[in-house]
Amino acid sequence: MLLAVALVFAYVCKAQEYHFGDYVYPFGCRTYFSQDSDGKTTSISQFSFTSQYFDNYLVEEVYVGLGMMSAKTIYRYHTEGNAVVSDVQIRQNALTGTTQYQDKITLFAFPNNDKPYTWSETDRGDKISGKSEYVYVKFRNERTKAIKITEMITFSTDKVHKHQRKSYWVEGFGRIVTYESIDGGEEHVSSRIDVDSLFEGFAELP
């Protein structure tokens, strides 16, 4: 199954000259620590690929406690130009059961010819505006070109809130870290790769 997904990515990459397979979980499986604002690990997320018939899926599994899976999301995806887009999401939760959505969600996007690429979408009623751009980061003690994806999510509870999410993707390694902040509050690491040597010292450079 992983081979089939890899071949799909390779074909699209060749046709569009976008090397998705170098950025979108390039090893076929990646694990991340999810953290709260105090830096405490709250859960572990694992991403993997599978395929069925002519459809390809990205699978996200969230584990808490002693390896108990608390949630699972299956994203059916395809490529559109410079973006990886999901058009069907199956969300499974230990408490609420399984729900299927058909939102159009951008999972990853390349900048547009070295210029920022922007998009707007809706995920379960939340409004999202996204931007993908090239930046330089400190990675493994070297200055490295990376893709920075910034998403501003607008959602409502008792009032309207703004949730900002920034993720950094490095060629050959995939997503390294995600930062989040709400309503302009202090930014914190919400998710990071489980390999300490890839995360330590990581920072965006001027």
Task: Describe the 3D structure.
The chain is mainly β and about 210 residues long. It contains two helices and 14 strands. It has helices at about 1-15, 195-200, and strands at about 30-35, 40-50, 55-65, 70-80, 85-95, 95-100, 105-110, 115-125, 125-140, 140-155, 160-170, 175-180, 190-195, 205. Strands 1, 2, 3, 4, 5, 6, 7, 8, 9, 10, 11, 12, 13 and 14 form a 14-stranded antiparallel beta sheet that branches. The longest helix has 15 residues, at about 1-15. The chain is globular. The N and C termini lie far apart (about 40 Å). About 20% of the residues are buried.
Structure keywords:
206 residues, mainly beta, 62% strand
Lay out the secondary structure.
Elements: H1 2-16, E1 29-35, E2 41-52, E3 55-64, E4 68-80, E5 83-93, E6 97-101, E7 105-109, E8 117-123, E9 126-139, E10 142-156, E11 160-170, E12 174-182, E13 188-193, H2 196-199, E14 203-204
Antiparallel strand pairs: 1-2, 1-13, 2-3, 3-4, 4-5, 5-6, 5-7, 8-9, 9-10, 9-14, 10-11, 11-12, 12-13
